[in-house]
Amino acid sequence: MHTTSSLALAISSALLASNAFAANDDTLSTVVVTGNRGAEQRTVTSSPVPIDVVSAKQLQATGKPGLMEALSASIPSLSLPEKTGWDASGMARAPNLRGMNAAQVLVLVNGKRRHTSATLNINGINTGAAPADLDFIPISAIDHVEVLRDGAAAQYGSDAIAGVINVILKADASGTSVTNAGQGYDGKKQTVQQSLDKGWEIGDGGIVHLSLDARSQNDDNKASANGYSVAQAGDLAGKSTYGGYGTPKQNLLTLAYNAELPLADDLSLYSFTTWSRRKSEQGQNFRLPTITNTITTGPNGYPAGYVPVWTIDEDDFQAAFGGKGQVGEWDWDLSTTYGRNEAEQGTYHNQNPSLGEATPNSFTNGTWISTQLTTNLDFQRSYDVGLEDPLSLSWGLEHRRDGYQVQAGDYASYADGGYCVAPGNCASSGAQVTNGISPDEATSATRNSVASYIDVGINPVPQWYLGTALRYEHYNEGVGATRSGKLTSRYDFTPAFAIRGTVSNGFRAPSLADSLFSARSTTYGVVDGVYQSINYGVLPVDSAAAKALGATSLKPERSTNFSLGFTFTPTDDFTLTTDAYVVNIRDRITLTGTLLGDEVTQVLQSNGINSTSGGQYFLNGADTRTKGVDVVSNYSQDLGAWGSLKYTAAFNWNQTEILSYKATTDIGGTPYELMNREARNLLTGVQPKTKLILGGDWSIDKFNVNLAFTRYGAYKEVNASSDRSLDRIYGAQWITDLDVGYRLTKDLSVAVGAKNLFDEYPKKQGVPSSTMVSSYGVYSPYGFTGGYYYTRLTYAF
Asked: Is the pTM of this model over 0.90?
């Protein structure tokens, strides 16, 4: 064990000497609305389903710049590796809940469905996911976040297989200014963030709350010296020639408002909106000056080779408008929510070598646009049925219209200029790294769904709660009809001890992006023993080329969820919840490996796809089973003159196994492997099976000290080939975070802190490559950029 790990354990033991574990007790008494449509108010410990509440104060104390990272530091069953994938997948990240794909988590804002991203993950942990991007919600706008760790498709519809993240926005007249700045121990990854929010009372009892976040982050590249010879790379031999191994460079601006205006005792209007703009960029693989695909002469040539840079410019918008009130005995809520995410992808410091010396150096490769328009009408009331507690009945209707559009890039990004060094030795067409979308590849589609649900809750006896939910949903394009149900039960044996459990089935409709997405990329690898450039494409599932390679139209993923646990609250200061779960998913959407071979090339060329030797497509590729246990314990301790301590201990054990998968497809009479070892390991082994969070929050006089230890379990990275000597197992690691605050005045406070206080890195054992991009592996759950220190100034007004 490392010395720093031993020190972390020693400090942890001192903090937890009272055998009590705790968190912010305010969150334990917060009334939760997620997963609870009934009239009875529920808290974390009285809820019949497992749920976490993370307050704005807790999010801030993590020292993390964005909502996703802050939640990952607070909830053991939620994970966010520093790199969830490569290229665009590494710049538009998303968190995983209970080890499942990010697309299997539904995101709500104020209880309303959040639209999804236009950027589809096509490699890494979240392959096939275009989930809602939580970083587009200003952290200054958030009152608290509720994370439901249970299947909820019967209540909320598609995507809620692993659970639900519901972001509750501030709705008060408070105001806060937070300035946060820091950098890595090595001087890289400099981050500056400014947050500002203020609320005002309007009308008679109304409120409007405005928020702004601005963040600038430099990249942090950890690539080691390359293995190229001088003959290959000239002066760059032995230097870092990869620019994307670490965090990307990003600039983000987000704005939001949340408003509600009562018009009468039984009628209120409400609205909320977020708008965001983000620019991201990250370097790619070095292009050798000695290969056909590098133009070394002319005004835009690179005689010493070059490192292209991939960019994504995103505009994100959500607006919700609604009214709520009472008619007779019924509470009603009518709302419409519109969301749009537009992502323009491009490259610079790049070439289209097929244009020869006429190549430009920057390209717009295409624009991807995702839209969603959702209208909900919900009703709820209670019935006196002669029992001590009334029966609660909720029902509602929903209409959703999803849209997805792929727009063409500029001509030079996809053109084939025909440049050849010699007969038979011609350069690849299109921009390097990622080829542009041609007008023939541009496409768009829309899909409508209508749904109805009913949710009933009753206490047959005062200590026993029984709830059920049923949902019917119909899609007009390909998906068809789905039916979901959920049965929930909780029994309080004593005021301090209760058991709870759920049984449900759910679904995730394949996103339009899964079916329509197309891209062509250039990479480098060994084919037939020769290191060379490889042009490959992700093909739309229903395209002629994909069908010729074995693709079929996508079906919905379907799940069956089981959960059983207990809550224990012997005093107001101590709580313990434990929940075990099993989630079976059928027809899980996966991406094939890159299909390479003469038969594949022939199929692509016969379908008009030239200069491309490999293809991939999405498919319902596997049936999986995920099982695990969540344990969360909290304790608050009054130390008198020494202040107060709040402890927390939270643990998740999680394991996914593949029950069956589609192994091969037949192309021209030759079998091709669909899901290689690497693809299977992305489902089963690349995320740690355990995560433990121990923390102490000590307040005394004007000081506040927040100390957290997170232990990430071992994980495994494997190579696509059958050579098991290339597999790597990364051992468990303790990471320490510290935040020390001091209140200068009643309204002004300052804090200093460190993430990864002891500058821990994964073991440097990655599979060697010519560009040395895998020194620390790829998917470290705590990253591979080392320690980071920061300072924070907070002013409340």
From this structure: yes
